[in-house]
Amino acid sequence: MSNLSDFPTNPDVVIVGAGAAGLGAARKLVKSGRSVLVVEADRRVGGRAWTQTDSFGSPVDMGCSWLSGSNRNKLAKVARRHEFTLVDHTDVPTALFVDGRRATHEELTAYDTTGAMIEKAMNRAGKRGLDVSCEDVIPKGLRFAGAVKAWMGPMDYGVDFKDVSALDDYLSADDQPSCIVAEGLGNVVAMLAIGVPIALGTKVRTIDWSGKGVQIETSAGTIRAKICIVTVSTGVLASDAIRFVPELPVAKQEAIHDLPMGLLVKVPLLFDGARLGLKDNEWMSYDIPETSPTRACFFITWPFGYDYVFGNIGGEFGWELSRAGPEATVDFALQEMVKQIGSDVRKHFVKGLATEWATNPLTLGAYAALRPGCHGARKILQAPLGDRVFFAGEAMGGRRCALVNGAYESGRRAAKELCKLT
């Protein structure tokens, strides 16, 4: 990994972005014997897979955190090969709070029943091919529906429940079992960069695909290649930060519009070692009203036995807090813990962080969420331009869209398609 000046600027394939999709594509192409150059605007690899290690003295995944479907997840194989520590996180219990107290057995049963009923209704609608809002197909008046919809909307998709497509949800894979990584999933993804030529700190400004090949104008100079694979987020594509010449076809532009970025703000809170009655590696949630935007922060408690809990705030409220800034976001998350557990939370609190994917110009969100009624946008976005420009990323992750392994697989798929042409 180095600067653009350290590499030949006429490779067979130039890949825009060194996240999971870009690295997956690069490794596949290098193995096939193609010359490859990955250009990355950031000064690090991994994209939205990023493990932060400086603030808490423990690894903290600021981006993607789960190896979903870990029994068949190719990234899980990478993690095991490099001796990362995987912890099963499939059927962990939930610490559910109601009005500042632990839920009763009857309340926990009602919570589970509501979750099952909502999921069943969503699956029934998806099986019928209904590309409509999940809000329109579920039973009304269910106890704990607010909390369940918070998990299924803002926490899963980064958008409020009303903005989740029942068909898109149905077509997504059942991603169990799942694991979390003690050393950080971001560090697993970074291992994919080994042996891959990557020019860091190189921002792409223009992709010219008007000729026989492609010409890429970057902040560090011009690259000419036969083919380009673009792996940036739909947020970046929608922002026009990268100019295409000729401009993208109308259908491609509409697909980008139909796949706006959702947002999941992660809020790790460090404590002094006190456990506050919470167990390691569990979920913590609480009863909330059925309102939209969803005002809630649900947690993972003491992952791997580290001294922090991991808050999650999603959907429109996540965007709102991001506009207010990290301090306001941390304050909200901490106050939600105080409401459930009591004032001891503040006594033992050390400091907190909040992710800033909403304002990061290289992401402009967490991951793409298909608008209800826009089925087909993912395939349109994935389609190549003139056999010269290919697209990959979590938005095109097939049945594993919005997941890091979906991004990785989409990059490999683009590489395979490319190899058939050259």
Describe this structure in words.
- Helices cover 33% and strands 21% of the residues.
- With 422 residues, the chain is of the alpha/beta class.
- The strands form 6 sheets. The protein has a 7-stranded mixed beta sheet with strand order 8-7-18-19-20-17-21.
- Strand 3 and strand 4 form a beta hairpin.
- Helix 1 runs parallel beside helix 13, helix 3 packs across helix 4 and helix 9 crosses helix 10.
- The chain is globular.
SSE topology sketch:
Blueprint: E1 13-16, H1 20-32, E2 36-39, E3 51-52, E4 60-61, E5 66-68, H2 74-81, E6 86-88, E7 94-98, E8 101-102, H3 105-127, H4 145-157, H5 166-171, E9 178-181, H6 185-190, E10 198-199, E11 204-208, E12 214-218, E13 221-225, E14 227-230, H7 234-239, E15 243-245, H8 250-257, E16 261-262, E17 264-271, E18 282-286, E19 298-301, E20 308-314, H9 315-324, H10 326-341, H11 344-348, E21 349-352, E22 367-368, H12 377-382, E23 389-391, H13 404-421
Helix pairs in contact: 1-13, 3-4, 9-10
CATH architecture of the largest domain: 3-Layer(bba) Sandwich
**What is the 3D form?**
globular
CATH topology of the largest domain: FAD/NAD(P)-binding domain
The strand count comes to 23
- What does the largest sheet look like? 7 strands, mixed
CATH homologous superfamily placement of the largest domain: FAD/NAD(P)-binding domain
Which features does this protein show?
FAD/NAD(P)-binding domain, five-stranded parallel β-sheet, alpha/beta, Polyamine Oxidase, Chain A, domain 2, 422 residues, 23 strands, 2 domains, seven-stranded mixed β-sheet, 33% helix, single chain
